[in-house]
Design a protein that fits this description.
Order of helices and strands: EEEHEEEEHEEEEE
Keywords: Signal
CATH superfamily: monomeric porin ompg
Number of strands: 12
Number of helices: 2
Largest sheet: 12 strands, antiparallel, barrel
Shape: globular
Helix content: under 10%
């Protein structure tokens, strides 16, 4: 969700060890980007993740629908801060078990500096943030939307090839799974000016055998300065070999924690 949205988190995930969710900051396709919204920039994001297969993973494979609001709140060109909130729904029929729609609010924030900040030529982007800050937890049922993911990213644009970013994250073990609550974040993105300045492409990766681990590919088209649309594909945990003994598998079943791959559309409206 490069058009991303609600600050520094990213449409990343919800629920316990075998759930998927999102609470988005300024993002690439799935992970946060090193970009931070400028002062008084306000964005509304409408995101949809539709599974390519309706077949469930041990009873859990929901589509995801998100509306987010985010804004830049720091009056500085060299150090920027954005904050946001997301309203996430899954429409999952067994919500009484998994608690998805019961607590649909998630919060996020991101602090960062742009490239060449403070007049230092060649200085990369830096960003730190938190997202999927949920509000629901029932430990006696093994349920939690409080993924509380904190992350750091460094980004650098290279001539011709585009921008690369890399970093890592750490989240709640109760929500993401024992031994599965940290990992690498990495991405590439580029405005395809040879075709049109309105066209942008990206690939991103999030490690970790949890609901958020994935590889995404997609692109966006800017219809105007205020409206853009991302279209992409998210493949959850593509390098993950499931096992009944995997400690990140809360149900003890042979499942992929992220569920089936999904097609995503992400509409961003800026004010």
């Amino acid at each position: 969700m490069r058009i991303g949205n609600v600050v520094a988190t990213t449409m990343a995930a919800l629920v316990f060890a075998c759930g998927t969710a999102l609470a988005t900051p300024s993002t690439q396709i799935w992970i946060p980007s090193p970009d931070v919204k400028g002062f008084k920039e306000i964005h509304i994001d409408i995101d949809n993740y539709t599974r390519f297969s309706g077949k469930t993973e041990n009873g859990f494979n929901p589509n995801l629908y998100n509306i987010g609001l985010s804004a830049g709140v720091l009056p500085s060109e060299n150090v920027k801060l954005e904050v946001g909130v997301d309203f996430l729904k899954s429409g999952y029929q067994n919500d009484a078990i998994y608690g998805y729609d019961r607590a649909p609010l998630y919060f996020n924030a991101k602090l960062g500096t742009p490239e060449d900040a403070f007049g230092v030529k060649g200085l990369p982007q830096f960003a730190i943030g938190a997202y999927n800050l949920g509000t629901y937890e029932k430990l006696e049922k093994g349920l939690s939307t409080r993924q509380n993911i904190v992350y750091g990213l460094v980004g650098k644009t290279l001539p011709v090839v585009g921008r690369f970013s890399a970093g890592g994250y750490y989240g709640s073990e109760r929500a993401l799974g024992r031994g599965a609550n940290s990992g690498v974040m990495a991405s590439w993105d580029r405005t395809m000016s040879e075709i049109s300045d309105k066209l942008w492409l990206a690939v991103d990766y999030m490690g970790g055998n949890n609901a958020n681990g994935e590889v995404s590919v997609g692109g966006s088209w800017a219809f105007s300065k205020q409206v853009s649309l991302i279209v992409g594909v998210v493949v959850f945990n593509p390098f993950y070999t499931t096992s009944v003994s995997d400690p990140s598998n809360g149900n003890g079943g042979n499942i992929n924690p992220g569920g089936k791959p999904a097609f995503t559309t992400q509409l961003d409206i800026a004010f």
